[in-house]
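Continued from yesterday's entry.
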Amino acid sequence: MVTPLGNGVKLSWERLLAKHSGIRSLKVEDLKVNGLLQSEDASLDLLSQMPSRVVGAVPYGSSAGEFDSQQWLQGKV
């Protein structure tokens, strides 16, 4: 189970029961568009044009509770 609260059933339920929220403000780092945004200014410009800046993003990475696509998906993501 992968949710904005984390990767894994146990962790997601623990965070849910502890009244954590996976909803947060959108960050420039969330705008990974396969390397199309080559500058910080371009990313900030795109962020400023978003009609909504609220996100329920899945934590991405290789740390505990984060989703690592390389572990689950074959090929590029």
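--- second protein ---
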Amino acid sequence: MARTTFSGPVVSPGGFEGDVTGSVTLPTFTVATAPSAEDLTGTIVFVSDGLAGSPTIAVSDGTDWIATDGNAISDGS
């Protein structure tokens, strides 16, 4: 399989196959700056204050950004 390096956002409606080697950089947001989760089902982001002020990875369920604890992201307020 050929290897390709990308810069900028990559969209793959059919999904990706294969292994990731090295690091992966996710888009970073705060709870206040996270985009609407609507229409982003399956998208993964890093939220610097998403677990009541602690950093987390979150996944869009199409309605909310769900943190690693299973709850919607929250800044703790």
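The beta strands are 28-29, 44-51, 54-60, 65-67. The CA atoms of residues 26 and 47 lie 9 Å apart. Will compare against the first tomorrow.
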